Amino acid sequence: MTDIIVRPLAQSDHADWQRLWTAYLTFYETKLPQEVYAVTWKRLFTAGEFEPKGFIATLDGKAVGLTHYLYHRSCWSEKNNCYLQDLFADPDMRGKGVGAALIEAVKQEAGKIGVKNVYWMTHETNATARKLYDYVARRTGFIEYDLL
């Protein structure tokens, strides 16, 4: 097996991105209209400090993982925070370093602009991912609430 390559998303990645993001949404038992796919893809390539960005991971030339992340202001720091919004590795690639490589890429990219706080959420039942997260990051103890 060769090394996992993580790089920013490119326009030519659209089909792989759509396949991986659909699999991610399916994992979370979620479906989104095609309009959301279209606007998300457009936003990933829209310049702007707070627009989402993305990385894709490849192994032997095949797309095997993706992440989306975005920066936002904080009242606790002069620098922005980085929210790692979506992280997905093909199921047959789990445990092989894809997720860790994607997290590290976001951390490195955020560090280039002085952002030190990279954070994310996962569902409490996502045991496979939580093993990785417990290894690469600290658990903050915060509990999420939302108003839907």
From TrEMBL:
GO molecular function: N-acetyltransferase activity
Domain N-acetyltransferase: 4-148
Entry-linked Pfam families: Acetyltransf_1 (PF00583)
CDD domains linked to this entry: NAT_SF
UniProt keywords, alphabetically: Acyltransferase, Transferase
PROSITE patterns: GNAT
PANTHER family: ACETYLTRANSFERASE, DIAMINE N-ACETYLTRANSFERASE
Official protein name in the record: GNAT family N-acetyltransferase
Organism listed in the record: Mesorhizobium sanjuanii
